[in-house]
Amino acid sequence: MPTHSIKCPVCGDTIDYWRVYCRREHFVGYPNRRAAEGESDELAARHEKARQDASKRRVPSSLLAKLEALAEASQPVIDMRVSVCDNLLRGGKYRNYDQRVESDERPPASAQDHADREMVGSRLFPRYSQHIVYAALSADGRGTKTYGGEVWMRWTPFFFDRWVSLLEENSFTFYEQHSLGRIGAVVPTGYRAVWEDRAKLVITKLAPRLTSATAARDLEELLLHAGETRKDDKLVEVHIYAEGGLDTRDVDLVAFQRPPGTADEEQKWAQIRDMCAQRSIVVR
Ligand SMILES: [Zn+2]
After folding, report:
1. Which helix (DSSP H) or strand (DSSP E) does residue 120 occupy?
2. Which helix (H) or strand (E) holds 202?
3. What is the whole-number distance in angstroms between the Cα of residue 29 and the centre of ligand 1?
4. Distance CA 15, CA 91 (A)
């Protein structure tokens, strides 16, 4: 992770690691992508090791190929309330926790919760965590179920290679696993990937869990397991740099997590279906 300054590739200006533009307004890329790019050699080494190990254990290469194809076809999905989805479809933007607190859309979480979020965010995205939207990499449009939402919304990767990066685990789990709460802790390298390397990251993470007995139908569940609590969620996390929030121009699917339970909900569900139909967004 580059914690020092970098050079603008156009004019050579020195740029702080969290910046997106140099002082002459040349675009220098988004810092989350730059951080992931900076770890690509370490990821490649872990990937190679995972493949060799799988081959020694006689994991069929056809199974690895299927997992790779599944990862390539996967997209970011966000778990949300139906009211949030409604607002997004009416032209609003999806805002992360920091952005919603900042705009008074929600009160801060409890002191403990707030501090945890800030710690994890600034360790992984120092000085720019307020711009990062979190999503889960999903093969089938279903996401996590631990954010109290009724809807999953899926984004298509149009230009995602520019502002998206991925992390092998849910960032809270990752933070805990690697003891990143210590003063001076350093984020280990090779666990993040740019969008184009998502299959490499997925293979690196999951190949050790495959055996010659793993069935192809189990792969989706391995890629994303929606747990009962956030700690039980198993996923590859997608980080989208979205200053001011993420708009819905690139949404291609809205999936309800459950059928409506009341007459009021029935009406809300129907409104979502109508708005999606107008915009050619698939609803499930
Ligand atoms: Zn420049």
Report:
1. helix 111-124
2. helix 198-206
3. 11
4. 34
Q: Rounded to the nearest whole angstrom, what is the distance from the C-alpha of residue 15 to the centroid of ligand 1?
A: 8
In terms of Cα–Cα distance, which of 87, 35, 192, 159 is closest to 95? Answer: 87
Tell me how far the alpha carbon of residue 127 lies from the centroid of ligand 1, in angstroms: 20
CA 146 to chain centre: 15
Q: SS3 of 167, please?
A: strand
Alpha carbon distance 157, 170 (integer Å): 20
Question: Are 236 and 137 spatial neighbours (Cβ–Cβ below 8 Å)?
Answer: yes
Q: Which stretches of the chain drop beneath a pLDDT of 50? A: 1
Q: Which residue has the tokens 């299927």?
A: 66
Cα of 201 vs centre of ligand 1, distance in Å, is 31
Ligand 1: centre distance to CA 249 (Å): 30
pLDDT tens digits, one per residue of 168-196: 999 999 999 999 999 999 999 999 999 99
Is the model's pTM score more than 0.85? yes
Longest dimension (CA), the chain: 61
Place of tokens 């190679």: 48
C-alpha 41 to ligand 1 mean position (Å): 26
The DSSP annotation for 23-49 comes to TT--B---HHHHHHHTTHHHHHHHHHH
For residues 37 and 163, is the Cβ–Cβ distance under 8 A?
no
What is the 6 CA–ligand 1 centroid distance (Å)? 11
pLDDT at 3: 53
Query: 27 C-alpha to center of ligand 1: Å?
Result: 7
**CB neighbourhood size of 23 (10 A):** 11
